[in-house]
From TrEMBL:
GO MF term set: beta-lactamase activity
Domain Beta-lactamase class A catalytic: 25-238
InterPro entries in the cross-refs: Beta-lactam/transpept-like (IPR012338), Beta-lactam_cat (IPR045155), Beta-lactam_class-A (IPR000871)
Name assigned to this protein: Serine hydrolase
A Pfam family of this chain: Beta-lactamase2
Keyword Hydrolase: yes
UniProt-listed GO biological process terms: beta-lactam antibiotic catabolic process; response to antibiotic
Length: 268
């Protein structure tokens, strides 16, 4: 089955995605025209993996905007608070600014940095921010690597539509304020995990501002792609996969096809 997006993108998704091997949601929008190219299962609520870190970053900048000294605050990390999925455990320095922690959380997906931010910002404030943005499918219920809370049924949840909402506001410099939005865009441009939406795109002449999420059988990637006057939003969440390799491959192939079709439609 070929699925037509907008007026110019046609993707044979069945040739890329075996739906017996994973479930997915996909949202793509041309940010220059606001034309929605794809909107497939975008309201489906799924485990967020590290995509929840986008919302944590947003609340951090919300609090920084109200307290200019917060960004200079130095956080001392106790060794007992270091969790798995963390670069910090391999470093000798355990003192970081709030902005350092945001960078580590977003670009290295560091779970210790994330948990430190959650403690400082507080879960109730992060959820308040999410609610005030009018998002219905996103909630943070636990810190990273808190498997006991997850066993009790408390998980972090999001949807492609909610992720798209936040990323669009960042792109349009309309999330919190201009400075915060510009800072968040710059942070996402330095993403180190390029195994999914960025894997088959020439990054030498294309800017990709994105955040990934990976846990067993679940792979997500979402971001803003900019090539000359081509600017679009790509969000793809996959879950219930047969493994992690297949989900990453699918996101990479769908992203590549959309990228190439966008460039063709703009005359490149």
């Amino acid at each position: 089955m070929k699925i037509k997006g907008g007026e110019f993108i046609v993707i044979d998704l069945e040739s890329i995605i075996n739906e017996d091997k994973l479930k997915y949601s996909l949202y793509v929008e041309d940010l220059k025209t606001n034309k929605i190219i794809f909107d497939i299962n975008s309201d489906a609520e799924v485990t967020s993996a590290s995509m929840i870190k986008i919302f944590i970053m947003a609340e951090a900048y919300s609090q920084i905007s109200k307290d200019e000294f917060m960004s200079q605050k130095i956080v001392n990390i106790d060794r007992d608070n270091i969790v798995g999925g963390s670069l910090i455990k391999n470093l000798s320095n355990y003192c970081y600014s709030i902005k350092d922690l945001i960078f580590l959380m977003m670009n290295l997906s560091d779970n210790t940095a994330t948990n430190q931010l959650v403690d400082i910002l507080r879960i109730e404030n992060i959820n308040k921010f999410i609610n005030e943005e009018g998002l219905k499918n996103t909630v943070i219920n636990r810190k990273m690597m808190d498997f006991e809370r997850k066993k009790q049924g408390f998980d972090n949840i999001t949807s492609a539509s909610d992720v798209a909402h936040i990323l669009k506001k960042i792109y349009y410099k309309d999330l919190i304020d201009t400075d915060a939005s510009v800072n968040m865009m710059n942070i996402m441009k330095k993403q180190m995990d390029n195994r999914m939406m960025a894997r088959n795109i020439d990054k030498s002449n294309t800017k990709i501002h994105h955040k990934t999420g990976n846990i067993p059988y679940t792979n997500h990637d979402a971001g803003i792609v900019i090539f000359k006057d081509v600017e679009y939003l790509f969000v793809m969440l996959t879950w219930d996969g047969v493994d992690n390799i297949y989900g990453r491959k699918v996101i990479g192939e769908v992203s590549e096809k959309i990228y190439n079709d966008f460039l063709k439609s703009y005359g490149y």
